[in-house]
Amino acid sequence: MSFPSEVLITTDSCDSSPNISIWDPGNGSQLVTYKGGTSVLPGSNIAVVHGQLLVAASAKQPFLQVWELSSSKKDHGFERVPCGHVTSLAVSACSSYTAAAIQEQIQVWETLSGRLVGSVSRHYQAVRCLSFTDDGGHLISGADDNLVIAWPLYRLVTKEIGASERNQPRWTWASHSLPVTALRCREQRVASASLDATVRLACLRTGLQLARFLFDSPVTAVTIDSAQRHLAAGDEGGNLYLVCLYSGNHAAAAGGVVAQSESPRFVGHRLRITGVSLSADGRWLVSGSDDRTARVWDLHSRQCLRVLEHKGPVTNVLLLLTPSAFSRPAVVGVRIPRLHGGVSDARDLVTVPFGVGPPSGWFGEPIETDSDDRLVDSVKPEESSSLLAAEYKAEVERLKRINQRLFTFKAAQILQTESESNDS
Known about the structure:
With 424 residues, the protein is α+β, with helices and mostly antiparallel strands. The chain is built from 5 helices and 29 strands. A hairpin with a 5-residue loop joins strand 10 and strand 11 (116-120).
């Protein structure tokens, strides 16, 4: 079977039939189905790990489910999470870390070892959405307490950092007045949707609010395209909006309120929008709804190109480049071990440091790397966290020196200008 360059993954809440499907968004054909035995948690709670495995959070049972993409076979070795019922799930872009929310607590595991490397609890109500930034440097969380929090990932995974410092986020945004329902991060931009009928766009670098978009109904889904030109949002009434982030009105109202009631809508859904996703090339917008359909839209004409029928309400939609499991089915897939329930210092576990991919040969074939790109198999597990902390400390010191030089230069320039003014 030949696969397109981009595929669509959808899930629904029907328990009696295959409830995870992979589609060709171009022609609407169903390529592969997976039967989970239980419905998948609504929201952005599915992820592909290293192009080989599909991970999903169960809506009814306290475990995660994993499938081998190439075989449709459920991997029972990574199923139960001993800590409780998962309310949100996210996997970093490089697949090194898996984060799950269990009520108000956030736990982070090394994906390939299953070792729990960090646990934080700053929210005081259940966390409903998690999202890693594209570079994997931060984990963003949104909860029923109306808060959106940005966590530096190095603080969560470095064991030398104390518990008090680990629980200190980089930013805490308290601008929503009702529970947060969806999050999407693109580089330095964080979009958060809420039941208060707004989507707020914040800057991760400065912590400032860039814009606030007001809609007619509580917003239940949000996403941003890869070029950061468009923001798509869906609400409880089945309305689907596309906001141009670079239009004159929105740029002028940066930090203020921009009403979207008059914006063109994608018309077709009858019930609540549960998920939205944009294609990498900016051609398609995909939406899922409680009306048991997922729809593929032309982004520019706003016409519905495909209607994908499901057996139950659609809970997740995800457009992504075709995973390597389909383009290279002969390659031996990775396996995810059972998750550990506590922070472990076991010496026989493979440790994958932050920002580094899987060890050499993990996929059954050699991986060529530069001599500077030291993978974990050249570092002892007990030394990896110390090495990571030392690298971050060196980087902080380097940035401090640069900042000091800039300050000195600017101060000298100001004093020189004042001296010339006094002389004149």
